[in-house]
Design a protein that fits this description.
Layout: H1 3-6, E1 12-13, E2 22-26, E3 34-36, E4 42-44, H2 53-61, E5 68-72, H3 84-95, E6 104-108, H4 114-124, E7 132-135, H5 148-157, E8 167-172, E9 178-182, E10 186-187, E11 197-198, E12 202-203, E13 213-214, E14 242-245, E15 263-267, H6 278-287, E16 292-295, H7 305-312, E17 316-317, H8 323-331
Parallel strand pairs: 2-5, 2-6, 6-7, 7-8, 14-15, 15-16, 16-17
Antiparallel strand pairs: 1-13, 3-4, 8-9, 9-12, 10-11
């Protein structure tokens, strides 16, 4: 980490005495918003009541952290059912808020598709003046083994200690360590696990030193005769017209329909290769004027003729980003 990021805390100031942190808490469902029924099945709590369980649990765990929270509920859904329509609804919800009023933005989400929504928000909220945290849980909050409330508390402690304003995920893995992830670097959990990983992940304990808050836009002193420019969530909507493909033994490209597809993202094997049959699919895409991107691919570091043939057949190389981020940027037409 460079010196600029090491010294970033100089841009923050300690809170006034007796001042409560003001946060925006956006509830979207997921395991962190479920309770187990008498049959043992987890279901989203449809009636949040006067106070979300997440805030009640926080008060029990750490009574010294009792933020002043504005609650928004754009929808309540298990994250395996996430769609582009839900993401648009989340964007609309955030678009109606004046972000600079808050010390931090907190968004609950299920773990199954957390990395995709994290990538979407990292792109949508680029330039947001306050930190945004996505909160998930491996078990319902009423389960003693749940990490959801701890993930929330870790995020609250990190206000002002993130490398810079951005979108982040705080999550305790099964090794007992609480990690901070940049949203655009987060990868999906491996099947059968509850652990999240990212390239730049680091233990939260290495960054905390007490709660501080960022100077809000409202507190900055504008030049005389001018008004401070308020950051707004861009008016961006996405449609489900990008096809995401993965290579596997025996893949049948002839069975893949491209009608209604605007772009294709095709991931590669670890050596940046794919089956030779992909060349025929690339030819179909080229004739249909559908761009086909391959990831991860750095042409100068490709050692197999297979990859050179893909590039010669019109594949567009992408590198330096996760699959989830590449897919979301394509949906958002930012690639």
């Amino acid at each position: 980490m460079d010196m600029e990021k090491e010294n970033i805390n100089q841009e923050y100031m300690a809170p006034e005495s007796n001042r409560r942190l003001r946060i925006l808490l956006v509830l979207t469902g997921g395991t962190i918003g479920t309770m187990s029924g008498s049959d043992g099945k987890r279901r989203v709590v449809s009636n949040v009541g006067s106070e979300p369980l997440l805030l009640t649990s926080l008060r029990r765990l750490a009574p010294e952290y009792e933020p002043e929270a504005d609650i928004r509920i754009p929808y309540q859904v298990l994250s395996e059912h996430m769609t582009t329509d839900y993401l648009n609804a989340l964007g609309d919800c955030l678009r109606g808020e004046e972000m600079s009023r808050y010390d931090g933005i907190f968004i609950t989400h299920g773990s199954d598709t957390l990395a995709f929504t994290a990538a979407y928000l990292a792109e949508l909220l680029r330039g947001c003046p306050v930190p945004v945290f996505l909160l998930a849980s491996q078990r319902p909050l009423d389960d003693p083994e749940s990490n959801g409330t701890e993930n929330f508390l870790a995020a609250l402690k990190l206000l002002g200690h993130t490398p810079e304003p951005g979108v982040f995920v705080t999550y305790r893995n099964s090794d007992g360590i609480m990690y901070l992830h940049r949203a655009e670097e987060l990868r999906q959990c491996e099947p059968g696990t509850d652990d999240f990983f990212s390239e730049g992940m680091r233990p939260c304990d290495s960054m905390t030193g007490g709660v501080v808050r960022r100077v809000s836009r409202e507190e900055e002193l504008p030049e005389e005769g001018s008004e401070p420019e308020m950051w707004k969530v861009p008016g961006l909507r996405i449609t489900n017209d990008v096809l995401l493909l993965h290579p596997y033994v025996g893949i049948r490209y002839d069975c893949i329909v491209t009608e209604g597809v605007r772009a294709v993202l095709h991931t590669l094997y670890h050596s940046s290769t794919a089956p030779k049959e992909l060349a025929g699919f690339l030819d179909r895409c080229r004739k249909a004027k559908i761009p086909c991107y391959i990831l991860p691919c750095e042409p100068e570091n490709c050692h197999y003729e297979t990859t050179s043939e893909l590039l010669a057949n019109g594949a567009i190389p992408l590198s330096g980003m996760t699959e989830e981020t590449a897919y979301m940027r394509l949906l958002m037409q930012r690639i």
